[in-house]
Amino acid sequence: MSEAGVTREGLTGRRPGREARFGNGMNGPAGRHRRPEGREGERRGGGARAEVVPPAAFASYYGRPVIKPPSWEAPDIAGYLFLGGLAGAGSVLAAGAELTRRPATARAMKLSSLTAVSLSAAALIHDLGRPERFLHMLRVLKPTSPMSVGSWLLAGYGPLAGAAALSDLTGLLPRAGRAATCAAAAFGPAVAAYTGALLSDTAVPAWHEGHRAMPYLFTASAATAAAGMALLAGPLAENRPARRVAALGAAAELAAARTLRRQAGRAAETYERGAAGRLMRLAEGLGLAGAAGAALLGGRARPAAALAGAALLAASACTRFGVFHAGLASARDPQYTVRPQRERLAAAG
Amino acid sequence: MSAQDEGRLRRLWWGPEPEVAADAGHGQAPPRVGFFTDTSVCIGCKACEVACKEWNAVPEDGLSLTGMSYDNTGALGASTWRHVAFVEQQKPLGGQQARVDHSELDVLALARRGSGTPVAEAEMTPTSPGRDGSGELRWLMASDVCKHCTHAACLDVCPTGSLFRTEFGTVVVQEDVCNGCGYCVPACPYGVIEQRPGDGRAWKCTLCYDRLGEGLEPACAKACPTDSIQFGPLEELRARAAERVAQLHRDGVADARLYGEDPGDGVGGAGAFFLLLDEPEVYGLPPDPQVTTRDLPAMWRHAAGAAAALLGAFALAFSGPRRAAGRRRAAGRR
Ligand code: SF4
Ligand code: SF4
């Protein structure tokens, strides 16, 4: 853990909050506990005027975070969010393709879903502190824990996705294969949507405050990814539904991301700055380019369809990594925890 | 569902919940216990930190200087279950004065008297405000700990059932069950629980579950020389705390306030609550923590809506007649 030191070159590792003002900047009007006025004024230089101006300062303990950011690895967990969405929405696309007699697309999507869900499971187990205990996930089923619900969803969905793909590849048990395809398509949306609750059900401001929009953003992103995969891997003659999904998914992703930022309040900044900001902007650009490319050229030229598909897949991945990093940034900076809570208290009176 | 059932369900979710242990399935539960940490008498000796490490065999987690007053522990974490915060403030507390002339003072005579001025006659005590409001420094110390929330987010979100509610109403991790998924870590609104590097599992204060079973008080409370950390039945602690805060207010310490004692707060009241002398965030505590699962019903509703929307979008995309043109064009190229 450490940190500050005096070296020949001067001070190192100084804490940002070390020089911060102590005592809450909002003590006067906003805080629950009012102090005698004169003293306040001396400390803050004009405490009386602070009655009208919303205070800009907030107090913290040496600038340290209030909550603990998750120790999840981005490639594992953000990667899982992407792959899980691709698998879930992909299974719906596979079933749609199968039922409307688009066999090549159906097979490609079944394979993609099986691969994605297998990689998902590997990433999730890899991220555990005790990977050998992964089966403990199925000790209980707790509706209060999205991770528990998700584990059971994956336990149900994974084998179905596997059966659907294997039956298609080998040609064995076609009826059972079709049933598995349809069942996987029933699980798919849940697999794609529950991750919204998974992230939001934490104290991480950027995630929790956006809990109403998060599932929509994630299913939209999942649809974008699945459409991208179908454009990339499916034949031209069969990709019309994928092009439609691409347009719907990219538009919905754009709208949901905006809504999420609006809901996130002060923590919205974390979606606009730094690594998260770059990823979110990249996701928007790639999503729009991919959807436009798919709509204009995706039905005409194979390379264009593939390129648009790759852009859509990348857009979906960028969204997931962007959301992940915004959450980390909002957890690491105490202001996103303290200030909204202060404002809530002030509003409640 | 009857109105009664509904009320019960809501209580389990959010708001005051008087019988936490019974609601968790412990029939015949002993009274709920907790900590009342009165920071106004804390002297920052860190005996609690040491006692906790010793009793619970918590490993060493870094020996370093942080540059944060006398706090070289930093924060609560996997291997720090009691953490003493030190805050230096330019703020009057007892009106301490520098360069006071003591030449007239006969210290030996004072010592013979056995004590200094009786408190009732004293012009000022360590906690009375400076006369002109111009005290130079006050040093706040507070021993932080897991709050053993009535509605504990860590427990709610734990997928393995490793975190559980004990018969004493406390929240404990079972180290033989935890698989280190790390979900409890960002769920806790106070940043208490953490995964231990190298071990992988999540660890936090157990409120000395093993000692409670034997009728002993937790190690930190036992070791605290000033009784800043008080252990006991929660109801009793709440009454004691209300009295203490009233006393401090009478003595002119307007800053004194309780934190976490209200069963109506965002976590249904903490099992370990505090008397603070400044805003909670000054000590690194969230001013208005909420258990994240309070919003979980809404999250599930929106997740269901999003899943339905996904299905709907695909249905829309696959509906309608296939356009022959596209196929013909593709066929022509083949
Ligand atoms: S303070 Fe955090 S770790 Fe302790 S019981 Fe509450 S939610 Fe759990
Ligand atoms: S890390 Fe352990 S205690 Fe925490 S939620 Fe996961 S299984 Fe439960």
From TrEMBL, chain A:
Localization annotation: Cell membrane
KW Nucleus (keyword) present: no
Main location: membrane
Cross-referenced InterPro entries: Electron_transfer_protein, NrfD-like
Transmembrane segments: 77-99, 111-129, 149-167, 179-199, 214-234
The keyword Transferase is assigned to this record: no
Top-level lineage group: Bacteria
Record key words, sorted: Cell membrane, Membrane, Transmembrane, Transmembrane helix
One family name in Pfam for this protein: NrfD
Any one GO CC term of the record: plasma membrane
Membrane topology (UniProt): Multi-pass membrane protein
Coiled-coil regions, chain positions: none
Ranges for region Disordered: 1-49
Family, per entry: Belongs to the NrfD family.
The protein, known as: Polysulfide reductase
Taxonomic placement: Bacteria, Bacillati, Actinomycetota, Actinomycetes, Kitasatosporales
TrEMBL record, chain B:
Residues that bind [4Fe-4S] cluster 3: 146, 149, 154, 188
Residue ranges annotated for the 4Fe-4S ferredoxin-type domain, each copy included: 33-63, 137-168, 169-198
Binding residue positions for [4Fe-4S] cluster 2: 52, 205, 208, 220
A GO cellular-component term linked to this record: cell envelope
Database matches in Pfam families: Fer4_11 (PF13247), Fer4_4 (PF12800)
MF terms (GO), sorted A to Z: 4 iron, 4 sulfur cluster binding; metal ion binding
InterPro entries: 4Fe4S_Fe-S-bd, 4Fe4S_Fe_S_CS, FDH_Electron_Transfer_Unit, Formate_DH_Fe-S_su
Gene3D superfamilies linked to this entry: 3.30.70.20
Annotated transmembrane regions: 299-319
Annotated compartments: Cell envelope
Annotated residues for binding of [4Fe-4S] cluster 4: 158, 178, 181, 184
Cofactor(s) listed in the protein's UniProt record: [4Fe-4S] cluster
Binding-site residues, [4Fe-4S] cluster 1: 42, 45, 48, 224
Record's cofactor remark: Binds 4 [4Fe-4S] clusters per subunit.
Keywords: 4Fe-4S, Iron, Iron-sulfur, Membrane, Metal-binding, Repeat, Transmembrane, Transmembrane helix
Any single GO BP term: formate oxidation
Protein name: 4Fe-4S dicluster domain-containing protein
